[in-house]
Design brief:
eight-stranded parallel beta barrel, alpha/beta, 40% helix, 9 strands, binds (3S,4R)-3-hydroxy-2-oxopiperidin-4-yl beta-D-xylopyranoside
């Protein structure tokens, strides 16, 4: 015993050491992984992962147990933030790929595929400040086109051997109005044209790639305008011959206050129209917001699992629905903890694993829906 330490100090440091030794680890459950189950019907299962500071919501990659979990359950990964404009382009002329590269290196080491998210998050709130106030020069129409095509060529081009499915455009439809969002680009070029430029360039870079329009229209009440706006946008793409292969259905589903409410028939009509136009579907960012469920954990987990099951069963009854990705695998790393905290201040139980890296009933629900899925394609 170090004679300079009091008994109390020795005890505290011993406790700290044993706490470090018992940090949650991940041990894969026996039986097929979620990706194994997805593979059986021609799909892949995956998750986002983030390279934020250790201990933060976006710091999942820094946690070795999380990395083990990804390697065990997933067939593909997507960067939570690392391929967005804000992360890749600190200014107009500088690209920083280092955080994205760390994720790609891990995926390669574990033999996991990678999706791209996103070449254009067409939403002022999520574009860098420098871009929102950018001066596009004396010929701003050309300036906008150059900025967009340079970006797509640089980002999609840099990864063209590794990433073949991209959310080319994200969230271009205003959820409240169903109209197109305005950004720095649309000051000079109409929104549809901005999107077309991005998709055409992406097709040039990835002739065989899967080009996706991704958005968060959903089946809960209050989404009708958003769904209609997305339909109009997809119709426009089809009419103009814009190269868009699939609709990414983000699937941030939510148990609303007062318990689950969802417009099943309207949602089915929406999905039917989308596939009727020839688009395929992906579930790109699945999680379950449990704000409408009670505090009790067992009841909440059951509510989340039942709600997820109803949703995934419907989505996976479509042969057009391909890959399924969760927006995070462990509750404590979910963006929902910060984005929509619960009124009772408890953590959202939104992911298939709890903070001790134990599977929750949501994991069983996802597995059951994947087992019952129709074959993709
Ligand atoms: C979220 C990330 O999870 C957060 O860390 C970040 O602060 C904001 O973006 N729709 C999307 C994702 O397309 O990119 C968002 O990710 C979640 C909603």
């Amino acid at each position: 015993m170090n004679p300079h330490l009091s008994r109390r100090q020795v005890l505290t440091s011993a406790l700290a050491a044993s706490a470090a030794a018992t940090l949650p680890a991940f041990a894969a459950a026996p039986g097929p992984s979620l990706n194994d189950l997805a593979k059986a019907t021609g799909r892949r299962f995956g998750s986002c992962v983030g390279t934020g500071r250790p201990g933060t919501l976006t710091g999942s990659f820094a946690d070795p147990a999380y990395r083990d979990l990804l390697a065990a359950e997933c067939g593909l990964l997507v960067a939570e933030n690392e391929m967005k404009w804000g992360a890749l382009r600190p200014s107009a002329d500088v690209f920083t790929f280092d955080r994205a590269e760390r994720l790609l290196a891990f995926a390669k080491e574990k033999n996991l595929a990678f999706r791209g998210h996103t070449l254009l998050w067409h939403h002022v709130k999520w574009l860098p400040d420098w871009l929102n106030s950018h001066n596009f020069g004396s010929d701003p129409v050309k300036g906008v086109e150059k900025m967009l095509t340079d970006h797509v060529a640089m980002v999609a081009g840099s990864y063209k051997d590794r990433i073949t499915s991209w959310d080319v455009v994200n969230e271009a439809v205003d959820a409240d109005t169903g109209l197109m969002r305005e950004t720095a680009f649309t000051r000079h070029v109409p929104a549809e044209k901005v999107l077309d430029i991005a998709f055409h360039k992406a097709r040039e870079v990835l002739p065989q790639g899967q080009l996706v329009y991704n958005d968060y229209m959903s089946w809960e009440p209050g989404h009708a305008k958003h769904r209609d706006g997305v339909l109009r946008l997809l119709e426009g793409f089809a009419k103009r011959g814009t190269p868009v292969d699939a609709l990414g259905v983000q699937s941030h589903i939510m148990v609303v206050d007062g318990g689950p409410k969802y417009e099943e028939a309207a949602w089915k009509r929406f999905i039917d129209e989308v596939v009727g136009m020839g688009y395929s579907l992906l579930i790109t960012e699945f999680d379950v917001n449990d704000k409408g469920l009670p505090s009790d954990i067992a009841a909440r987990d059951k509510g989340v699992a039942d709600y997820a099951r109803a949703y995934l069963d419907m989505m996976l009854s479509y042969k057009q629905t391909g890959d399924v990705l969760a927006w995070g695998m462990v509750n404590k790393y979910s963006w929902l903890q910060g984005f929509t905290p619960r009124a009772d201040k408890q953590k959202q139980r939104c992911c298939p694993y709890d903070d001790a890296f134990q599977p929750t009933p949501l994991r069983d629900a996802i597995a059951a829906s994947l087992r019952g899925a129709v074959k993709y394609g």
